[in-house]
Structures are given as C-alpha cells and as structure tokens.
Design brief:
About 0% of the residues lie in helices and about 60% in strands. It has strands at about 1-5, 10-15, 20-25, 35-40, 45-50, 60, 70-75, 80-85, 90-100, 105-110, 115-119. Strands 2, 4, 5, 6, 9, 10 and 11 form a seven-stranded mixed sheet that branches.
Length: about 120
C-alpha cells in the first residue's frame, strides 16, 4: 500500500497560481504512474493529470491543458501540480492517487486538499 499526503491547497483569486504537492510513502517501489483528480461540490470526481514515474510521460485533461503542469521528484517520492491562470471552475478538492494495475478506483488515494478560486 502507498500512503499519499497532499498539500499546497488554499484560496486564490482568479488568474492566480498554486502548486500542489503529493508525497508518497510506503510501498513506492512498484509505482508506475501517479495521477491528480479533483471533485467539485455536487460533481463527480474527474481526472486532471498523470505522470509516469519512470519515463515521466504526462497526460492532461483537456480542461486544464496549457494551464496546469504535472512533474515529479523521484528522489523525494513527490509529485507536483503547478496550476496557473486559475479559474473559479477549478475550485475543488484535489486528490492524488496511485492506481492498482491501471485502475485508480481500487488504488491508493490521499485525503485531498481544497483549492478555492475566487472571482
């Protein structure tokens, strides 16, 4: 099992930036990919971005393409999500997750960090 702890959320005005961090511990040697998801009030959880742990391949949702950047520090077992040009619709709880196989639903999840973007 992998333990995940997110940090870096907060309140920011539209157009501002935040950087989220997700620190992994536990059975990290088998990690292949780590993803960021978000859930806004009254909405389903949605995929935001993911990064391959070894090759560093990145994947983004269309809604944040060009504004968010995912990166990793393998030595620190930490993944980052740099969020620029934030919009009120980016307001959500952001979670990092490691899938089991290719299935995030049965993988390991952090507790989430709140991001609120004011207009």
């Amino acid at each position: 099992q992998v333990q995940l702890v997110e940090s870096g959320g907060g309140l920011v005005q539209a157009g501002g930036s935040l950087r989220l961090s997700c620190a992994a511990s536990g059975r990290t040697s088998g990690m292949d990919v780590m993803g960021w998801f978000r859930q806004a009030p009254g909405k389903e959880r949605e995929f935001v971005a993911a990064i391959g742990w070894n090759a560093g391949s990145t994947y983004y949702a269309d809604s944040i393409l060009g504004r968010f950047t995912i990166s990793r520090d393998n030595a620190k077992n930490t993944v980052y999500l740099q969020m620029n040009s934030l919009k009120p619709e980016d307001t959500a709880v952001y979670y990092c997750a490691v899938p089991k196989g290719s299935d995030y639903a049965v993988g390991d999840w952090g507790q989430g960090t709140q991001v609120t973007v004011s207009s």
